[in-house]
Amino acid sequence: MAGKNGGKNSVKKTAKKNAKKRILLINHYAGSPSMGMEFRPYYMAREWVRMGYRVDILAADYSHLRMNNPKIDHDFSCTVEDGIRYHWVHTRTYEGNGASRAITMAQFLSKTWCAAKKIAKRYKPDVIITSSTYPLDTYVGQRLRRYCKGSRLIHEVHDMWPATLIEVGGMSRFHPFCIAMQIGENSAYKHSDAVVSLPPLTEPYMKEHGLADGRWYHIPNGIMEEEWEGSDPLPEEHEKVLKELRERGRFIVGYFGGHAISNALSVLLDAAKLTEERKGRASYVLVGDGTEKDSLIEQAERLGLKEVYFLPKVPKTSVPALVQYFDCTFVGAKNSSLYRFGLCMNKIFDSMMAGKPILTAITTPDDIVTRNQAGVMIPSDAPEKIDQKIGEWEELPEEELRRIGENGHKAAIEKYTYRKLAEQFAGIF
Questions:
Q1: In a 3-state reduction of DSSP, which class is residue 93?
Q2: Is the pTM of this model over 0.85?
Q3: Residue 152 in contact with residue 193, Cβ under 8 Å?
Q4: At what angle do helices 138-147 and 116-123 cross, to 10 degrees?
Q5: What whole-number distance in Å separates Cα of residue 223 and Cα of residue 350?
Q6: What angle do the packed helices 418-428 and 40-50 form, to 10 degrees?
Q7: Whether the Cβ atoms of residue 1 and residue 107 lie closer than 8 Å to each other
Q8: From CA 403, how far away is CA 373, in angstroms rounded?
Q9: Radius of gyration for the chain, computed over Cα atoms and rounded to the nearest angstrom
Q10: In 135-148, which positions are buried (b, 16+ CB within 10 angstroms) versus exposed (e)?
Q11: What distance separates the 2 farthest-apart alpha carbons in the chain?
Q12: CB 3.0–4.6 Å: which of 49, 78, 182, 305 could bond 300 by disulfide?
C-alpha cells in the first residue's frame, strides 16, 4: 500500500507543479471519443490535464474525420470534455480533397490569425502547439508567440506536406498550393522552438528545410490502455463466422480497419489465392468498411476465393473481442516513396496491443515490428511473400505464435501508451 500511496502523492505533486502552466494546441481536425477522429490531440491533452496542465484546443467545427461535429452559433464557442477546453471556429462543410477543403483551411487560419491577440490575452499559453496535418498553422502559432512573451512554440508533424501531395496525390511541385505548403513547412522548421515528428526518419529532411540542430523529437502514435480493458461483445454475424472457422481448425489471418487503396488489401486477396492453390489452412477475415470494399468483394469473387470473409466494421470497444479469434493480424500499404520517412500508423500499435503476431507488408527502412520482435516486415505488393510467411506460421506451435504476440503487447505497454508519450512530449515544454 505504501508504494501505491507514494505513486498517488507523486502524481499530486506533479499536478500541483504544473497547475498554472497552460497549453494551447491548434489542430484543425481535433476530435474525441464522443465526436470521432482524430484522436491523438484528445489522448495527449487528456494526459496533460491529468498531469495538472490547463489545455485549450483550437479546432474547426467541421471535419470530414468526425462522426459528430459540434453545433455552434459563434466563433470560439467553448465545450469541455474530460477537462479539455475545445474552442470551435466556424468553417464551411466540404467533401473530398478539392477546393472546398482548401477554403475551410483558409477560413480556419484567417480567423485564428486575426483573433491571435484576443486568443493570447484570453488563454495566456505557456506552450503553443501547432498540430494540423498541413503546415500553414505555423503562422498562427508564430503570431501567438509574439503576443505571449516567454511562450514556447512546438510544431507537430503528422503528414509530410507537400511531399504527400506531390508523391501520392500526383500534384506538380510547382502547383501554387504545393508551393504555399512548402513555404509553410520551411517556416515551421526554421521558426519553431521544437519540432515533434510522428514518422521516425524525418530528421535529415527537416534539417535540409531549415530545422536547427537539437530541435527534432520523435513521438509516435500509441495506444490508450483503458480502451483494451474489457470488451463489448461482437455482433452475432461476426461471432458466427469466427467460431465456425475455429471449429474447422482454420488459421485465421485478420485485418481490421478501413478498406482503402492505401491499405493494399487487393494484395492480401492475391495472397489468399496462392494460399488456396497450395491448400493451406489459412482463412482471411477482413473487418471494416471503406471506399474499396465493393471492388475487393468483386475481386474475391473473380478469383473464386472460398476462404475469404468480409465482415462489417465493429466499434472500437469490440476490437479486443474480435482479435482474440485471430491467429495473426495484417497491416499493409501500397508501395510509396513516402515510407522512406518511416511508419506512424495507428494500426501497427493497435495490432501490437492486440497481442497477436503482425504481418506487415510495407516497403520501408523502419523496422518497428521486427525491432520489437512482434512479427515480420516484408515489402509492399508481394503476395507471394505474404503467402510464404502465412505458410510458415500455419506450422508454428501455438506457444511460439503466442510468444511473438506477447512481445508486441509488452512493447505497446512499455513504450507506446499515451501516458508515456504525453510525458515525453511534456519534457519538451
A1: coil
A2: yes
A3: yes
A4: 60
A5: 7
A6: 80
A7: no
A8: 9
A9: 23
A10: bbbbbbbbbbbeeb
A11: 69
A12: 305
